[in-house]
Amino acid sequence: MCVGKCSRIVGPCLLVLGTLSVLASVLLLFPGGASRYLLQGHLGRHARALPGLWGGGIAVLLAATQVTALGWQCPGCSGRHSALLSVLLSKLALLGAAACFVLCGVGLSTGPLCLHNSTALGPGHAARWGYPFLDPIDLGAAARAENYLYNRSTWSACLEPEGIVAWHVALFSLLLLISAAEMLLALLQILNGLLGCLCGSCDGK
Fold first, then answer.
1. Residues of 106-132 as b/e, b for ≥16 C-beta within 10 angstroms?
2. CB 3.0-4.6 Å disulfide test: which of 53, 61, 124, 196 passes with 83?
């Protein structure tokens, strides 16, 4: 496939994925669509890190814009300099998407920050904000032995925000899938750009 034709496919795909990544990351700041938890500071550290904004979002969108422009340049205009720039930006996108993938994986395994039942602190401390699935001392031996992702009966331990576990799992899983696709496309564009640097564009030939 010609360099320009490949870029016309990869570029728009990265634009869509980067935009979805930004939206998913922003939604993590508003559990259940409510803004009060953001204002009160009751957000998990991985949600506050916004990996889908800067990693799977901005870094990918920068590359996507240039790759799309490269794909739609006139035949003979997509020179080696443009191809080299697409390689450099695609490497940045690859690193950003990889960082997003790792952080979202850790965030998914850690679980959400929520107001949860805690009997370990004794009377008067029945509920507190924390990560009940990171060290589930209050969920029983069976819950400790099994990951919360495979044991939905433990999700009710989170009292507030309402539905936070499903919200957390859905958005972080979506970000994992998006960042994995971004890494594959960025790697494809790196190879495509290197081919353009070595051989030039075959468009119009």
1. ebbebbbbbbbebeeeeeeeeeeeeeb
2. 196
Look at residue 203 in the predicted model and tell me its pLDDT.
Answer: 52
Considering 68-77, 110-119, 135-144, 152-161, the range whose residues carry the highest mean pLDDT is 152-161
Chain-centroid distance, C-alpha 204: 37
Contact status, residue 203 vs residue 1, Cβ threshold 8 Å: no
Round to whole Å and give the CA distance between 121 and 135. 14
Q: Please report which helix (H) or strand (E) contains residue 97, including its range.
A: helix 80-110
DSSP characters for 168-196?
Answer: HHHHHHHHHHHHHHHHHHHHHHHHHHHHH
pLDDT in tens, 16-35: 999 999 999 999 999 988 89
Q: Please, are residues 30 and 38 in contact by the beta-carbon 8 Å criterion?
A: yes
The pLDDT of residue 137 is above 60: no
Nearest to 13 by CA among 103, 118, 90, 87: 90
Residue 162 one-letter amino acid: E
Token pair of 187, please?
């790697």
CA distances in angstroms from 132 to 32, 50, 69, 109, listed in the order given: 19, 21, 47, 12
Residue type, 53: L
